[in-house]
Amino acid sequence: MQLTGKSFLKLLDFTPQEISALLDLAKRLKQEKKDGTPHRLCQGKNIALLFEKTSTRTRCAFEVAAHDLGMGVTYLDPAASQMGKKESIADTARVLGRMFDGIEYRGFAQSTVEMLAQYAGVPVWNGLTDEFHPTQILADFLTIQEHFGHLQGIRLVYMGDARFNMGNSLMVGCAKMGLHFTACAPSEYFPDPALIAQCQEIAQQTGATLQFTEDVDKAVAQADVIYTDIWVSMGESEAVWNERIRALLPYQVNQTVMQKAGPQAVFMHCLPAFHDQNTEIGRQVCQTFGLQELEVTNEVFEGPQSIVFDEAENRLHTIKAVMAATLGGC
Questions:
Q1: Does 222 qualify as catalytic in the annotation?
Q2: Which one of the listed residues 184, 199, 270, 330 is annotated catalytic?
Q3: pLDDT band for position 232 (cuts 50, 70, 90)
Q4: Would you call 94 a catalytic residue per the annotation?
Q5: Is residue 246 annotated as a catalytic residue, yes or no?
Q6: Cβ(183)–Cβ(161) below 8 Å
Q7: Of 57, 244, 315, 317, which is the active-site residue?
Q8: Is 315 assigned a catalytic role?
Q9: 155 annotated active-site
């Protein structure tokens, strides 16, 4: 695996062999952490974390992974950086690239992380954009490997709005690694046709299949993985909530869906999840729409088929592998 100096912006940029190598490295580093074996592979290096969107898992995974690898970390939230306000993205990249060995970006436009990578001169890692979430997919695939023992041929069904980062990235990842991907949603919520066509070409080389259906029963029959994500992001208007809930409520992951999939199926979610009313947004939705749960029921989320917290932990190990590989630590 020769990834030293390469940015990690989207899985489309990586071969199946490179993705497999990153997963193998993540497994090794995870075991070493469990065993208490130090792996300070990037001793003395420093990284910057640029967050235009906040996140519990992404920030913690990058910070703990960096410390485990022996690196220093500087966290910059929107109030701590002038990027895009008083200083252009290109200028910010060139400044940070001369001070840091790597830069993580989590925010909105994919073009922003691409421009950071173009000008920084050091590896840039995509912690999430509106279009792609590649570090999440590595964690998902490591979790699937741990549970089933393989990726090739796994039947993964994504239920919900498949037009944005998670639907896009899961489709790309499945195409690259030979999984059978199904997007189950209203047709207007299917991924971009151009990206579908690109993934179809990749799938022809890997044995993957891509399907798109509005029929829940057809989609989930004999599925290995049922995957969903939140329907509406924080900050979106109430009009969006009305439209999304009306359209996506038939695609809620509940116990009936899991039973139709079968006992072999697992439930996955990139988190956070609106599975109860123990959040401000959960309570607000209940008061406004009379719903106790949204994209997944609490019965499924807390049930024996749920592996969401294994998945969340694996953000740490896969992000650590990405940083170690691209910074030349391995």
A1: no
A2: 270
A3: confident
A4: no
A5: no
A6: no
A7: 315
A8: yes
A9: no
Q: Is 270 a catalytic residue?
A: yes
Report the distance separating Cα 32 and Cα 132, nearest Å: 29
CA dist 190 and 167 (Å) reads 8
pLDDT at 234: 63
Structure-derived torsion over alpha carbons of residues 49, 329, 24, 272, reported in degrees to the nearest 10: -10
Q: Could you say which of 42, 101, 136, 330 is catalytic?
A: 136
Q: Residue 81: which pLDDT band, with cuts at 50, 70 and 90?
A: confident
Please, are residues 261 and 220 in contact by the beta-carbon 8 Å criterion?
yes
Phi then psi dihedrals of residue 181, to 5 deg? -105, 130
Active-site choice (57, 59, 133, 180): 133
pLDDT in tens, 199-218: 999 999 999 999 999 999 99
The contacts found for 149-153 with CB under 8 angstroms, 24 or more apart, are: 151/177, 151/178, 151/179, 152/177, 152/178, 152/179, 152/207, 153/178, 153/179, 153/180, 153/207
Neighbour tally for 195: CB within 10 Å = 18
pLDDT of 194 reads 98
